[in-house]
Automatic annotation (TrEMBL):
Keyword terms, alphabetized: Hydrolase
Designated name of the protein: Glycoside hydrolase family 88 protein
Gene Ontology molecular-function annotations: hydrolase activity
UniProt-listed Gene3D superfamilies: 1.50.10.10
Organism this protein belongs to: Coraliomargarita algicola
Recorded superkingdom: Bacteria
Pfam families: Glyco_hydro_88
Keyword Metal-binding: no
Amino acid sequence: MNKISIIDTEEAVSDAVSSVTHVPATSVLAPTVEVPSGKRIPFAWRDFSVGKDCEVGTTILRWEEGTVVPEGTFRLRLAVSLDIRHTIQVEARDSETGVVFGVFDFTQAPVFQIAEIPLTREFGKRVLQVGVELRQIDGSVDLRFFAPSANSPTLLQPHLMVAGAAETADVWGEFLERFRDLSTVQTFSWMEGCLLEGGYDLNQRYAQLAYETDLKRRLRLYLNEHDLIYENPRSEPVDNSIYGIEGTLPFAVIGRLYPEHASVQRAVDFWLSRKQPDGHFASGAIMDGSMLSAEGSLCVAYPLVVIARRRGDVILEELALDQFRIRRDLLVSEDGSIYLRNRLGDLSFRNWARGITWYYLGLVRGIIELNDRKDIEDLRREAHRVMHYLLSYQLENGLWTNFIHQPSSGMDTSGSAGIAAALALAYQHGILPIEARQAAARTKDGLVAYLTADGLLEGGTPSNRAGEGSGQRRVIFPVGMGLAAQLLVALDPVDDSSSCVKES
């Protein structure tokens, strides 16, 4: 299959040959552990358990006998099928000798979280020969992972990734292939929303590669003719309902492609039900409980604008504008810092890179949708202010740290990709000057160092549970890939006349 070349954007298609081999496990021996009551495995994909103690039985993965792989480096991977809210590590052992190959860290892992262990070639060959025993370290709950299956993506099944020589790798080409095979699918929320936005933009830019087919295939995982079928971030079924404001970003793409689907009106009804009354500290804000959050800019205001515009609904459009302005007024401090949360006046998570993404990318996309309005100059000025603030903290490698004003907080590829996507989009649509595009291009160059040979983006701050978003641990987080895809397309613009997405 032809791949997009991001190295030379004058040539949209490259015939680069992949130097990566994915070798999925072919069988699993695991204890029978029922899915907990009130939980559900997404899409009815097969999964298996790793018990919290040895008494329930061992879990062993095996590969087809006699499998031969090319020379290269090995990584062993697993992906979570049921939400984890604990500190969890899993040893991978030689199934015959008990020698430990390495340890997976699945602490506070959301569904679809991929973790990997680098293997020596000797260990890689042993995995193929005798298999892998999985064992929890100080486990307190039964874990579940996606199993070998003909129905789920290979990269979400237990597999070995074998990478050839680095100099032959086409990592951006591999990155874009990951949008074709469902291996980056995420929980229906801000997570999947970022991937849907990236897929939508890819289809807008690269019409000849028909990303619309892949985008609609993703959406069909969640939508049938009438229903919205999904689990919330705790793996609880919430079909035909909206679990919270962080779950509504996907409706920007759904509202474009399937504006008449019943779930779109459910989202609108939900937003209206969460509007705060006069006298509230955030009067007019659409928010969950007592917490005003930056997520509301991207996950509420932006999709609300999209739907309002397609309906010609001026009232909804004004409500969306209110969301941007309320968050500007209540999440930005006098020194220009941007906070993730305001809980009854108590601000927290100052300058968290991914929080800035939610605030800024939502704002920029909202301005783009409303570009013809003459009364949003205040929002344009805010876009300029934020640009100058962010550029003062951009590092030499083009990225930003997890808390952008704290160099010691460690690099975050997901927040960096999101910030850069906002800058590049704002330049592309005439909102910001050339400095924005130049900064975004530096980010794209800096992200290359964090792409695996098969195009997964490492170095992302974990899902922000139990303080995990504040720490130094970094993971493969496809959310960052969705944001990076938006960045790539914004840096490689095309005339609207060649767009191929059909909004029907």
